[in-house]
Amino acid sequence: MRTKLVAGNWKMYKTLREARSFSEQLTEFADLLLNTRHESLICAPFTALFGLHDQLAQMHVKLGAQNMHEMAEGAFTGEVSAPMLKELQCEYVILGHSERRQYFAESDDAVARKAMTALDQMLTPIVCVGETLEEREAGATRSVVSRQLGPVLQALKSQSAKELDATALVIAYEPIWAIGSGRSSEAKDAEEVAAWIRSLVTASLGSDAASQVRVLYGGSVKPENIVSYVEQPNIDGALVGGASLQPASFAALVQQVATITS
Ligand SMILES: O=C(CO)COP(=O)(O)O
């Protein structure tokens, strides 16, 4: 049984002070957060991570980062490594978000190397994939997602001999045209791509791994529509941008998923 995951991606929003204020206000919803059977997670900017962990942990909300470098240390000015995130008690890291691919030229191979490092350091990678509107209209969604995931699955296949836990992988399907646009994917379309992603995992890593890997949907998810995605058989949660920024809205996302997991 895969545990559902409600993950907030704050992107480049919230100073440390604002992040602390969020977690203080979130305590109003502590009972709800403590009594769910699914996981909830905030992926905050690096500068807010240190100040967030303790209060979020008291509400069983986990902490994650939005990126990391593939090396554990080195002369990489401005970068942050997996051991640094681990020490701040991060359990997850988002990798290959479309904004990083688009604005910071992250390649499929680089994302795969980062994912391997994260797994090696016992951080759960949330690897993001998804097509542009142009690609969707050209009927290329499956081939784009296959291309993006290929190096990750290939690396996992060869690494599983080294006993990395392939099943710790989380894959987020985020169609780029749905991000921040208010134009979310139809749940049945998102489910179709999630099923395709699972079939790719089956082909590379086998059906056991495929039945354990979690696949999230992201793109204009709100409390009003989250259930329509998370109730799909191949969708195990959501990666949420804008609607995760306010405590009441984040709590409402968690509450909505609780209606189908309790
Ligand atoms: O990019 C996203 C999450 O990673 C989605 O953002 P929105 O929920 O704001 O559309």
UniProtKB/TrEMBL annotation:
Pathway terms, separated by semicolons: Carbohydrate degradation; glycolysis; D-glyceraldehyde 3-phosphate from glycerone phosphate: step 1/1; Carbohydrate biosynthesis; gluconeogenesis
- This enzyme's EC code(s): 5.3.1.1
Its recorded reaction(s) are: D-glyceraldehyde 3-phosphate = dihydroxyacetone phosphate
Q: Name one GO cellular component term.
A: cytosol
InterPro entries per the UniProt record, alphabetical = Aldolase_TIM, TIM_sf, TrioseP_Isoase_bac/euk, Triosephosphate_isomerase, Triosephosphate_isomerase_AS
UniProt similarity note = Belongs to the triosephosphate isomerase family.
Q: Which PANTHER family match?
A: TRIOSEPHOSPHATE ISOMERASE
- Protein's name according to its UniProt entry: Triosephosphate isomerase
Species whose genome carries this gene:
Sulfoacidibacillus thermotolerans
What does the record give as the organism's lineage?
Bacteria, Bacillati, Bacillota, Bacilli, Bacillales
